[in-house]
Write a structure and sequence with these properties.
This protein is mainly alpha-helical. The chain is about 75% helix and about 5% strand. Strands 2-1-3 form a three-stranded antiparallel β-sheet. Helix 1 packs across helix 2, helix 4 packs parallel to helix 7 and helix 5 runs parallel beside helix 8. The longest helix has about 30 residues. It starts with a helix and ends with a helix. The N terminus is likely disordered.
């Protein structure tokens, strides 16, 4: 009996040590993410299909390994808000034919489309050039990619639920809600607020600083405007049938992430020149 208790305490201590491992290792990342996914399984099932959960587990483990638990909290915040926005007025969206498939439960394609740029930033932070400056740029790109995607998701879902009028971004003609490349005032404003909220969350948990948060918000809005133009002009048009929603999402978040890094570099160079 005593030996069993000692064994149990030893396992608990080992688990706690894995959670606290700093910097994170693949072992600690996989273990910690597994525990979190088990605890959060009811929420995960409501927003993801099985294949989507598997993809999200890989994303979560990579996130923990690259940037630690605070970054995983940021991704979880993104997931909760994005899922909530998708569920808003689901019955109405289904009746209008603009709702996400499977009652809004996303699959692996959606997970990859939402996280590809962030995954690249995470891998680069692990296996790229060493140095604090490079690591922080990777983290900035990571945060910007999720600010971009959350803004896109919220603007689309809230626009379909509450938007009075949808305009095609290339011509400003009134089009049915849910049309590729369509925007609404209500959705655009909601998406803007969502990007601000996630960027502020990243500041509060120490992922980025305030100037970097501003960069993330600006980059996300530019990227989403570009994504709307791509959707209106090219997506699934003749010769571009391969350009589906998941691929457009990857392009969108890649633009947002790259823009944030570029803007930060330009600001740093400008600051250095000013100090000379």
């Amino acid at each position: 009996m005593i030996q069993d208790q000692e064994l149990g305490l030893g396992l608990v201590d080992h688990a706690i040590q894995l959670f606290k491992t700093s910097p994170p290792t693949w072992r600690s990342a996989l273990f910690s993410n597994l525990v979190i996914f088990i605890i959060g399984s009811p929420l995960l099932v409501s927003g993801l299909c099985f294949d989507g959960i598997v993809a999200a587990f890989l994303l979560g483990s990579l996130t923990w390994r690259a940037f630690g638990p605070s970054a995983l909290f940021l991704v979880a915040t993104f997931f909760v808000i994005g899922t909530a926005a998708t569920k808003v007025k689901m019955v109405q969206k289904e009746a209008q034919g603009v709702a996400e498939k499977r009652k809004g439960r996303r699959g692996p394609g959606s997970v990859i489309g939402s996280s590809a740029a962030g995954c690249v930033c995470a891998f680069l932070s692990i296996y790229g050039v060493n140095g604090r400056a490079f690591y922080q740029l990777c983290k900035l790109g990571f945060v910007a990619s999720f600010c971009t995607k959350l803004s896109d998701t919220v603007s689309s879902e809230i626009g379909k639920a509450y938007g009075n009028t949808a305009y095609l971004v290339t011509t400003f003609k009134v089009v049915p809600k849910g049309t590729e490349g369509a925007v609404s005032a209500e959705g655009t404003f909601a998406g803007f607020l969502a990007s601000i909220f996630l960027a502020c969350t990243a500041v509060l948990i120490g992922e980025i600083n305030v100037p970097e948060a501003v960069i993330c918000v600006v980059a996300s809005q530019i990227a989403n405007l570009g994504e709307s133009f791509i959707g209106a002009a090219l997506q699934e048009k003749e010769g571009f049938q391969w350009l589906n929603n998941d691929i457009v999402n990857v392009i969108n978040i890649s633009i947002g992430s790259s823009l944030a890094v570029l803007m930060q570099q330009l600001m740093l160079q400008s600051s250095k020149q000013s100090s000379l």
